[in-house]
Amino acid sequence: MNFRTPIPALFPGAPGRIVTALTAHHSARAGAPLPLTELAREASVAVTQLEATLFRLGLLGMIEPRTRGEHVRPVPGHIAWKALDGLAGLGHRVVEEVRERAAADLDPAPAHLTLSGPVADGSATHPADVLELIVVPPHSAPADWPEQIDRMAARLSRTLGNLVTVRIAATPEEAGGPSVK
Questions:
Q1: Which residues contact 35 (CB under 8 A, 6 or more apart)?
Q2: Which of 60, 74, 63 is nearest to 30 (CA)?
Q3: pLDDT of 133 strictly over 90
Q4: Using the 8-state DSSP alphabet, how is residue 110 labeled?
Q5: Domain residue ranges in the chain
Q6: DSSP state of 71
Q7: What is d(CA 52, CA 79) in angstroms, rounded to the nearest whole number?
Q8: Does domain 6-88 have CATH number 2.40.50.320?
Q9: Which residues of 99-128 are buried (b: 16+ CB within 10 A; e: fewer)?
Q10: In terms of Cα–Cα distance, which of 84, 9, 85, 8 is closest to 44?
Q11: Which band of pLDDT confidence, cut at 50, 70 and 90, is reported for residue 60?
């Protein structure tokens, strides 16, 4: 998965970049007018490429009615903007997803769990980018605990769309970074 720019990864080309720029504008200044030249610059498209996408967004009620060439005003509170805000911030969900998966899959919980790699820092742009889990097993780990962590990594790989690898560390200091627990 592309966690840096997830909207254009799912919706390639100019429309994805335009919706990404509008989502950022809506998030920062909902309802405020956005000049076409600024939108074109933010989306890295020519002003002439905007109108078809803006027409479709207007039909969906996501932008205020406008005539060709007028500033764009996203409709504040439109349900689609809320969903797109969540999608644009997908990288922030990785830690939450790992916490939920660890709570569901690991018994007992690890003594320490750290995330590393481009998926963890939100810079992943390709499915080949890796999320590394650095795990300190609990002192009372059952014999099947390594299999539990491997199953969890496999589930996370499917959920995130990126390969998840596991490295076992002996101490939290060896694992580095803050724990995600």
A1: 71
A2: 74
A3: yes
A4: P
A5: 6-88, 90-175
A6: P
A7: 21
A8: no
A9: eebbeeebeeebbbbbbbbbbbeeebeeee
A10: 8
A11: very high
> What SS3 state is found at 131?
strand
Q: Are 169 and 143 in contact (CB under 8 A)?
A: no
pLDDT tier at 45, thresholds 50, 70, 90: very high
Give the mean model confidence (pLDDT) for residues 106-133.
93
Place of tokens 């605990």: 145
- DSSP sequence for 162-176: S-EEEEE-SSHHHH-
Q: Please, what is the average pLDDT of the chain?
A: 93
CATH 3.30.70.1350 correct for 90-175: yes
Asked if the bond preceding 108 is cis, omega within 30° of 0, the reply is yes
Confidence check: pLDDT of 59 > 90: yes
Residue 149 has pLDDT above 80, yes or no: yes
- Six-digit token string for 159: 């959920």
pLDDT band at 181 (very low <50, low <70, confident <90, very high): low
- Highest mean pLDDT among 3-7, 106-110, 125-129 belongs to 106-110
- Which amino acid does the sequence have at 169? A
